[in-house]
Amino acid sequence: MDFLLNKKQRELIQIAKEVARECLEPRAYEVDKKADHPRASWADVWNHGLLGMTIPEEYGGLGLDPLSYVLVVEQLAGGCTNTAMTVHMHSVVMRYIDSLGTPEQKATFYPEIVDQGKLFGSWGSEPSRRGGTGSVQTILSRKGDQYVINGDKHFCTMAGGAHRYMVHCNVQGLDGGRNIVMALVPHNNMGITVKGEWDTLGMRGTVSPSVSFSDCKVEDDWILGEVGQAERSGIGQIFGLGYSAVYLGAAG
Q1: Model's pTM, two decimal places?
Q2: What's the total number of domains in the chain?
Q3: Are 158 and 125 found together in one domain?
Q4: What is the DSSP string of 144-179?
Q5: Which of 15, 33, 232, 244 is most buried by a 10 A CB count?
Q6: What residues form DSSP beta bridges with 167?
Q7: Does 46 share its domain with 86?
Q8: What CATH number is given to the structural domain containing 98?
Q9: Which of helix, strand or coil describes residue 93?
């Protein structure tokens, strides 16, 4: 299918193509070989304004529609699949903040990306939950005056590299199929333990091992939206489009 692209879309695609060719591609082999976070490439993506692709314009982002977004991600993946995949995971979290976050949360979290170049990871996969199916076993429960997270996650992209992790949780006492909440947990929070190693050809630089949570404390204002709201947002479907764009870019 041919799309008639507007001037802004063509300019963004050209910027992404140049970033991929001049900045990402020269590092891509070493990033994957060393299985390390592509921090220098993240900085280049940020410096060209592309870490805020899915942040609304009023908060300093680009506010891209889904078509423009996947076209940019495809170009980035042509230079480095590790960088493109991690930026995609980060960008999905930005959509959740836009959809579920309060004005106060947006004013807190978005500047960490726009002004500081931080990345946010998204951790939803579990041993018994693949592809968005099955019940979430990671539990968010009340303990004293705070919430805590307990459970295990798989494929935790940017573990040890992202600034915050959006953890998909089931609220204690509720069915974990459609009663999910998202908690934005800082990377240096106590109670987060990385388990095992990550060694996947072509995606080693996403650094996506398993992670265990043990009484990991969560402040009230780190929780996005109401119970079940994330599942009804439709963002999970958009997430799949970005995945496809990464692999199309890698194949191209």
Answers
A1: 0.92
A2: 2
A3: yes
A4: TTEEEEEEEESS-TTTTTSSEEEEEEEETTS-TTT-
A5: 15
A6: 123, 183
A7: yes
A8: 1.10.540.10
A9: helix
Query: Over pLDDT 90: what percentage of the chain?
Result: 75
Q: Are residues 111 and 73 in the same domain?
A: yes
Q: Cα separation of 180 and 4, whole Å?
A: 38
Rounded to the nearest 10 degrees, what angle do helices 39-47 and 81-100 cross at? 60
Which is it for the CA torsion 135, 136, 142, 145, positive or negative?
negative
Shared domain check, 242 and 220: no
**Residue 147 lies in domain:** 120-232
Among left, alpha and beta (phi > 0; psi -120 to 50; other), residue 22 is: alpha
Quickly tell me which residue has 């459970």 as its tokens: 151
Question: CB burial class (10 A; 0-12, 13-18, 19+) of residue 187?
Answer: middle
For the stretch 187-227, pLDDT in tens is: 999 999 998 888 888 899 999 999 999 999 999 999 998 88
- Do 179 and 171 meet the contact criterion of CB atoms below 8 Å apart? yes
**How far apart (Å, rounded) are the C-alpha atoms in residues 90 and 234?**
17
Residue 154: predicted pLDDT:
92
Q: Containing H/E element for 226?
A: none
End-to-end Cα distance, the chain: 17
- Contact criterion met (CB below 8 Å) for 61 and 55: yes
**4 to 1, 10, 74, 243: CA distances (angstroms):** 10, 10, 17, 23
Encoded amino acid at 144, one letter: G
Q: Is there a single domain that holds both residue 200 and residue 239?
A: no
172 and 92 within one domain: no
